Amino acid sequence: MFQNEAPLAQAWLAARAKNRQSLQIPGHKNRYSLQDTGLPGYDLLAPLIRDDLPLQGGVDDNAYSHQFLARAEQLWADAVGARHARFGVGGSSQGNMAAIAAISQPGLPLILDRTSHRSVHSGLVISGARPVWVLPQIHPEFGIPVGMVLKDLPTRRATALFVTSPSYVGTISDIAPVARLAHDSGIPLVVDQAWGAHLDFLSPNQGAMSAGADLVTTSVHKAIMGYSQTAVTTVGGDLVSDEALNRAIDLLTTTSPSGTLMASIDATRAVLLEVGEEYLDRAIAAVEIARASIKKISGVVVIDQSTAGCAVDPLKLTLWLPRTGVTGTELANYLWERDLGVESADADTLVMTYSLVDSPEFIRDSAAFVGQLIEGNRKEPRAPVPTGVWRVQPIVDLTPREAFYAPSRRVHLHESVGLVSTEQFCPYPPGVPLIAPGERITEELIDAVRIAAGSTRVAYSSDPTLKTVTVVAE
Predict the structure, then answer these.
(1) What is the per-residue burial (b if ≥16 Cβ within 10 Å, else e) of 285-322?
(2) Among 178, 275, 296, 339, whose CB has the most other CB atoms within 10 angstroms?
(3) Short-list 167, 154, 146, CA closest to 111
(4) 417: burial class by Cβ within 10 Å (0-12, 13-18, 19+)?
(5) What is the pLDDT of residues 262-306, one digit of tens each?
């Protein structure tokens, strides 16, 4: 196969052009307009489904006899330096859960980065593994993760090591020495690279797989151009088998995958291989110019290699703001009112994500506008209020699976100190739980939930008011 092929995307285009009359699902029968159905009110629905084609019985036949998906997955694997790849339509969340299911066993230790996404905790519920949590280095002033640096592993009985890189704020771990440490202990390295799909398409390849990781999940919709919910999990090396990944993906995937979403993964790869290097370089250069411009604003700290002390995603523009007196939250609100949504914001930070489809002019102008907002809302410098999610050092009393299925009772959050949670309290963004199943609730965590609720959505709690929590019944 040649990398300029896009077998799944080309099959999607061919199937869409045929406008088949279907005798199977989906129920909209590929009828994309009011004229096709005559149903009153269909003009509301039609624009929303106009590109919907299932993979089975749509892009391919019911038996997948043309192997469009398998060919596209292998092309992706070849492009990023992996042996095998699987596409997913449940985001990197699905990929993370599948990765954990593939490399862990019930009751056995699994070493994980505690700043990982909430889906990692879900994977632990599925697998029954016993988490051994480790933390990346945290910047002493900015309070953000600045890369995973491990001198040894806390246990040699573990089944794998799982880390997250890039972080939500864009900091990147040096994966190669982490991979060597894991391999010296005879265990695979798994990386949640959800925010770093573009790293695989830089020249040279800067992705985790090329640095020695064994299993990597990356989102195709975050920093590159895939449909929302699209992700890919890849495997390399000799510590994780293709079969193990396949079994785990098949355990968690839908049996009615969207051909449209999966074709967008294939098309994204083809576009990146054709023009990606040129346009990635263009966007990266523009972001670097924007960083240099904002650095001139008094009090603003731009998170880059010079300030963080580690590599930083070249398409992220992350600002640390306490010295300006402005909060990231108020800037985000101003920007949203002007139809400019930022990736995330809290009291101290503002995170903006750019991609290769952003023009240099847009990158320059949007960064300049943020600078104007900072100057226009400047106050006296204030003490930092770092988010608690990067600092959680959990007390693990039960595995997440044991806690999730344990008999539970509901108590007031402020009366839960010392009890074991059965659920998550998860500021979103960045999607890292403060309180998680199996972990003991402390006063510090309750305070962190209160602070987080003042600047972002705290999600996945069974009580949206955050007043109560379910705990393991005594």
Answers:
(1) ebbeebbeebeebebbbbbbeebbebbbbbbbbbbbbb
(2) 178
(3) 154
(4) middle
(5) 999 999 999 999 999 999 999 999 999 999 999 999 999 999 999
- Residue 3: what pLDDT? 59
Query: Which residues of the chain fall short of a pLDDT of 50?
Result: 1
Q: Where are the beta strands (DSSP E) in 46-188?
A: 84-88, 109-113, 130-134, 161-164, 171-172
Percentage helix, strand, coil, to 5, in the chain?
A: 40, 15, 45
What one-character DSSP code corresponds to residue 274? I
Identify each DSSP E strand in 137-228 by its residue range. Answer: 161-164, 171-172, 189-192, 215-219
Q: Identify the H or E element spanning 75.
A: helix 68-80
> What is the distance between the alpha carbons of residues 466 and 474, in angstroms, rounded to a whole number?
22
Give pLDDT, residue 37.
80
Query: Which pLDDT score is estimated for 21?
Result: 82
Tell me the CATH number for domain 277-376: 3.90.1150.10
- Cα 439 from Cα 397, distance rounded (Å): 6
CATH topology of domain 388-472: Ornithine Decarboxylase; Chain A, domain 4 (3.90.100)
pLDDT tens, residue by residue, 365-414: 999 999 999 999 999 999 998 889 999 999 999 999 999 999 999 999 99
Query: Is 191 in a helix, a strand, or coil?
Result: strand
Predicted local distance difference test score (pLDDT) of residue 11:
97
Element (H, E) at 426: strand 426-428
CB 377 within 8 A of CB 302: no
- CA distance linking residue 86 with residue 77, whole number of Å: 9
Q: Assess contact for 155 and 132: CB atoms under 8 A.
A: yes
Q: Where in the chain is the domain with CATH 3.90.100.10?
A: 388-472
Please name the helix (run of DSSP H) or strand (run of DSSP E) that holds residue 350, with its range, or none: strand 349-353
Let me know how long the chain is.
474
Could you confirm whether domain 7-271 is CATH 3.30.70.3460?
A: no
